[in-house]
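Shipment paperwork, digital attachment
Item: protein structure file
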Amino acid sequence: MTQQAGDVKTGLLWKQEHLSPLPIPTGQPASDVLGMIWRKNDIYLDIGSLSLSGGWVTLYSMSLIFAGGILLALFQGIFLAAVLIGLISGVMMGFLWKGYIKAYRRPLMPPLRFHRQRREVRIVTPEGEEWTVPWERVHAIAPSATMIGQFGATRMGGLLLWFPYKDQIDEPFHMNKEGWAIMVSPGPGIAAMRQWECIRSFMEIGPEAVPEPTDVQDKSLRDIFTEEFHKARQHHGLLLTLLWDVGIGQVLFNPMVYHWLHKQKFAVIPDLTSPDSIAWSQPLPPEQWAKRSPELEAAIAEREKELGFAATSKLSSEAG
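Attachment content:
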């Protein structure tokens, strides 16, 4: 049986929430947690992943932690421990940095384009294959899992968008069915719902209900550093700004390298350039706009009643 929005599957340490189809309101505000919105206008919404920025921050932080462990061992005179930490961290971080550099050098994937007037999604693979999927056939799933370690339990999760292949649009969906998918990690539960709500709100409400696109700065490093320095000085004073932004902060977080990598990779984000995609992306006369299916209309009305009842109950309990 094809899963629908609202269906939930659970296991011992995992949970899987289906958000679409049908794309009904989640009850959460639209929030671009991961900065996935690349372009937005009255016609279409482009989303993509800038997760390489977060990857650099993670790897750089891990490298600093290992370097701190080596220095601490040296200061304590435990040279064998320093050598062991250096060997283990060198192999592990070398492998991770190699993978990151390889991913960084690859071109960004074309964006997913959601056309609200056609109520369709345009998919373009890195290999150049293109097709469209009806909006109401998009599957949005929020999987989450609980990881148990020596410091306690941690819940992790993401947002999975699944699209049928062009020759399988009308075939029923199941979890083992092959399709074209994108997985991002805004976080479990509510965070994934808020990221999905950006897309759903654009398609069902309009561009005004969605945050503005990610601001990719196309400036020199000197301009960026000057702006940040002046902002920090106004809020924290000159001495603290010099100590942190120019000294400790540069060593710990290295924001200048981050901005350089970000600018080199994301100053110009990809677009859909094929004649078919360009023609598909054009606006339609209002009388040709696609409409919601009767099933979706009924599902949205029912969901809005549920959310309205929940909001009313909450206000009543707070008043009491």
